[in-house]
Amino acid sequence: MRNTGFVQLLLSSGLRRQEGGSLLTFELPTQRLRHGRYCHGRVAAAVTRSKRSRVFYASVDALGQVETYVQSERAWAVQRAQAEGRYERLPVVRLVTRVTRGLKPKVQWVDRDGVVGEQELSCLGWRERQWLFVEGPEGPEPAWLWLTEQGMPMSPDRWNGVFRTANLRCEDVLLTPGERKIERSFRLAEVRGRSPYATPHAARHSMALYMLIVLNQLMETRYGLTKAERRDFALLFGDPWWLVKTLLGHADVETTKRHYLAPVAHLQLESILAVAESTDEDKDVEDLDGVFARLARETAAIQDIDTLVGAAV
Questions:
Q1: Tens digits of per-residue pLDDT, 262-274?
Q2: Which of 128, 153, 136, 135 has its CA nearest to residue 96?
Q3: By the 8 A CB rule, do 197 and 303 touch?
Q4: Which of 46, 67, 110, 200 could be 17's S-S partner, Cβ–Cβ 3.0 to 4.6 Å?
Q5: Is residue 40 a contact partner of residue 111, using CB atoms and an 8 Å limit?
Q6: DSSP character for 85?
Q7: Cα-Cα-Cα-Cα dihedral of 119, 121, 123, 124, to 10°?
Q8: For the chain, percent of residues with pLDDT exceeding 90
Q9: What average pLDDT does the segment 80-101 reach?
Q10: How many degrees, rounded to 5, is the angle at CA 284 between CA 279 and CA 289?
Q11: Pick from 89, 127, 95: which is nearest to 112 by CA?
């Protein structure tokens, strides 16, 4: 539940590994947007690459998976750690006494020696966040969202190992013993293409591609804008590239185009959308499954997991 919750959160929000991996329990978004399909939260400046705080959005479904993890696996890990006295042996524990509201919320705490301290929430780095504890039903427990099986805060870089293990499990099922002996970078393209390969950053790339296609689809199909109207809309609200750039937290839209959407750089977006057919005229957004499946067939940099796993089955 922890691993799938983390992946769904990154796929939904486009957060970086460190941004999503260093969230605190009380930072999970709870305020729903209009229509209730997404919630919005704020990433602390100290854990971002640009050192600037920004708003992020996550789907209600993804947050529901995270909440399920919090109430089950995470709660069990905390109970075991408390029973074994792991938290009592930690060198630094800061028990949160209050989180203020406002534009710049602050975290107030008291340590084991009774020394009171506070810091602006956005200024807390990922290491300092691991020292924060909150009072739980059975005693102090980490405020850090993602915990190991031992109930201890899981460092953001450890997610690389989680993804690596998942990739190896896919290879065990989908590749032959001889193919697995060859390091991935030296395998034939046909062999690499038969087994899904994911990293934490791949979730961010996937979210960027999905949002670009959907935003263009909304502009061209749902809103029915002419070229002139699209130009006016872009001047007022920004074009889809600019909107995706904002969601990802990039300073320059060229970074979004050059690095994150390179897999479709050789494809004309108009031709991508031209073959997308709506299955129901009354739907708000067209069915795009076929569009993404076709993109996966036309470029090696995009993986269609359903196709890969379906072929194996």
A1: 666 555 555 555 5
A2: 135
A3: yes
A4: 200
A5: no
A6: T
A7: 80
A8: 55
A9: 95
A10: 50
A11: 95
